[in-house]
């Protein structure tokens, strides 16, 4: 089962996960990071940006989880733009080493296979950051996604389009389709770090962490991974059944172990 860490707030989570990223880069300067977009990972990126001056990130590469299909790459809400603005620039990463699935309609047929090849060529993802949707999606693997799926085009649920309307003018402006790493792609990463904050995520978190393995709850795929860490605030953890045990295990964890 995943290790569950319950922290006071998103900032604390950001520092904790930034520590793990820093430790990874110290032992592997050419580390490959799996980059999530959306609101959840921002605390991690700002904690890392604050430390960027003392880190050598020149050989780090990154792979975004997903991209909208049909948005021009320079649209402010394309995940290419978001990753550039929120990760590449603040951390001073080499843009040449940062990959985002190609969501342009002209090359969409081959974009999934090419992305999988690029991940393999980079040696695989060392640490994959994940958020979770209110419907349980990870990446944009909506309910019903195969646990073996690889990078491919998916149709966003109406719920996800409503949730993401805050980045656009209205739900109608949120693209209908996306290209996303599959659950099978995500499960190949060495270490999964899923973060969730707020009451709105509590049901998806409880179902993903403690519910049955089910394609209808894509987040439950993390139960199949040998090294998965779930970092939550109190509200996101509020519907878990085994919180006492998670707190007890965390409080008694040897310092040297990290997450
Ligand atoms: C983003 C992604 C999604 C988000 C999820 C939660 O790259 O893959 O799974 O992590 O939709 O979004 P936020 O963090 O905005 O609540």
Helix content: 25-40%
Determine Rg (CA atoms, Å).
17 Å
Tell me the distance between the termini: 14 Å
Number of DSSP strand runs: 10
Sheet with the most strands: spatial strand order: 1-10-9-6-2-3-5
Find the CATH topology.
Rossmann fold
Structure notes:
The protein has 259 residues and is of the alpha/beta class. The chain has a single domain, classed as Rossmann fold. 33% of the residues lie in helices and 16% in strands. The chain contains eight helices and ten strands. The strands form two sheets. The chain has a seven-stranded parallel sheet, sandwiched between helices. A three-stranded antiparallel sheet has the order 4-8-7. The two termini are 14 Å apart. Fructose -6-phosphate is lined by residues 36-40, 65-66, 131-133, 137-140.
Sum this structure up briefly.
By secondary structure, the protein is of the alpha/beta class. The protein has helices spanning 10-27, 42-51, 79-91, 108-121, 158-164, 183-187, 202-210, 243-251; strands spanning 3-7, 32-35, 61-64, 66-68, 98-99, 127-130, 152-155, 177-180, 191-196, 228-233.
């Amino acid at each position: 089962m995943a290790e569950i860490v319950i922290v006071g707030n998103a900032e604390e989570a950001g520092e904790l996960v930034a520590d793990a990223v820093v430790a990874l880069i110290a032992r592997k300067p050419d580390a490959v990071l799996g980059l999530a977009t959306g609101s959840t990972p921002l605390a991690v990126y700002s904690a890392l940006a604050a430390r960027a001056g003392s880190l050598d990130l020149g050989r780090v590469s990154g792979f975004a989880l997903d991209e909208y299909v049909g948005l021009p790459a320079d649209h402010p809400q394309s995940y290419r733009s978001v990753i550039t603005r929120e990760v590449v620039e603040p951390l001073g990463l080499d843009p040449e080493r940062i990959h985002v699935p190609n969501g342009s309609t002209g090359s969409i047929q081959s974009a999934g296979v090419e992305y999988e090849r690029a991940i393999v060529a980079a040696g695989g993802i060392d640490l994959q950051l994940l958020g979770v949707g209110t419907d349980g999606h990870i990446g944009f693997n909506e309910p019903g996604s195969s646990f073996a799926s690889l990078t491919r085009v998916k149709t966003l649920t109406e719920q996800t389009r409503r949730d993401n309307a805050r980045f656009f003018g209205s739900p109608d402006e949120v693209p209908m389709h996306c290209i996303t790493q599959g659950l099978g792609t995500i499960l190949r990463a060495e270490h999964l770090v899923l973060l969730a904050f707020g009451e709105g995520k509590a049901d998806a978190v409880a179902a993903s962490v403690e519910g049955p393995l089910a394609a209808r709850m894509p987040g439950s795929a993390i139960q199949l991974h040998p090294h998965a860490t779930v970092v939550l605030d109190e509200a996101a953890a509020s519907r878990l059944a085994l919180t006492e045990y998670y707190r007890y295990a965390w409080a008694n964890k040897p310092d040297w172990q990290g997450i």
